[in-house]
């Protein structure tokens, strides 16, 4: 059912929790897992947490560590690094690779109307060309 799963990762602690689910899904469906990490453009909205990724070096390290973590679980992954606004890049990549599913975490902010800044997760939900599984 889910032959191609896109898993956008960042430096937030929630990413590790979601990685476990992504690994289980890919094993269950015997598909392709693509890890995506986005170097945020300098004109992105200011991040209020440690999930912001402003350097290509930090993103490369993150992808390398994630690839090793999945390999230890017996899951082969492909990695991709892009630059731009995370939500738009995630949706563009999902479209380019014909993803069947995007699996991503949510830090619990931005999914309600009271938030002054729309979350990346909410934007992806609204713009995605495929289903989005949000893991709280």
UniProtKB/TrEMBL annotation:
Q: Which Pfam families match?
A: Usp (PF00582)
Membrane-spanning ranges: none
InterPro entries the UniProt entry points to: Rossmann-like_a/b/a_fold, Universal_stress_UspA, UspA
Question: Where does the UspA domain lie?
Answer: 1-136
Per the record, the domain of life is Bacteria
Report the sequence similarity comment from the record. Answer: Belongs to the universal stress protein A family.
Q: What is this protein called?
A: Na(+)-H(+) antiporter
User: From which organism does this entry originate?
Assistant: Halomicronema hongdechloris C2206
Please name the taxonomic classification of the source.
Bacteria, Bacillati, Cyanobacteriota, Cyanophyceae, Nodosilineales
């Amino acid at each position: 059912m889910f032959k191609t799963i896109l898993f956008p990762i960042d430096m937030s602690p929630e990413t590790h929790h979601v990685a476990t689910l992504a690994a289980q899904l890919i094993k269950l469906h015997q598909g392709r897992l693509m890890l995506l990490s986005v170097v945020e453009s300098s004109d992105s909205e200011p991040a209020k947490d440690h999930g912001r990724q402003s350097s290509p070096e930090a993103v490369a390290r993150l992808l390398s560590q994630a690839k090793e973590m999945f390999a230890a679980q017996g899951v082969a992954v492909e990695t991709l690094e892009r630059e731009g606004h995370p939500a738009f890049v995630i949706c563009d990549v999902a479209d380019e690779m014909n993803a069947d599913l995007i699996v991503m975490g949510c830090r619990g902010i931005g999914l309600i109307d009271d938030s002054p800044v729309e979350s990346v997760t909410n934007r992806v939900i609204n713009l995605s060309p495929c289903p989005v599984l949000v893991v709280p």
